[in-house]
Task: inverse folding
């Protein structure tokens, strides 16, 4: 059995880089063509759109039609509005709930 040839790290790096060049060139040329085809920048979806998409992925059903999605969209919009309103309320470090918890003692 012949002894395995020892490859130092510099030779290995050169071989790896030479093999990666065609792959990188193919990926960048495809990305450049896609950017040329896309004239206007794509707007990211709104949080409500992302949540509706999540609902559709989590609960796939034929009965979930446009009317059902419209009702869910109204609920999601309301929840997001309430969340934004609560998040905008300024709190300080000393703010705490307005109730006191006491241990129950059986007398």
Result:
């Amino acid at each position: 059995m012949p002894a395995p040839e020892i490859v130092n790290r510099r030779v290995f790096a050169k071989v790896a880089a030479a093999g990666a060049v065609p792959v990188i060139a193919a990926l960048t040329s495809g990305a450049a063509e896609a950017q040329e085809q896309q004239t206007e920048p794509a707007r990211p979806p709104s949080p409500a759109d992302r949540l509706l998409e999540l609902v559709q992925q989590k609960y796939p059903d034929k009965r979930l039609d446009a009317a059902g999605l419209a009702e869910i969209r109204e609920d999601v919009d309301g929840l997001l509005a309430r969340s934004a309103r609560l998040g905008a309320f300024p709190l300080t470090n000393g703010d705490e709930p307005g109730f006191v918890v006491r241990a129950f003692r059986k007398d």
Summary: The mean pLDDT is 78. The first helix runs from residue 9 to 37.
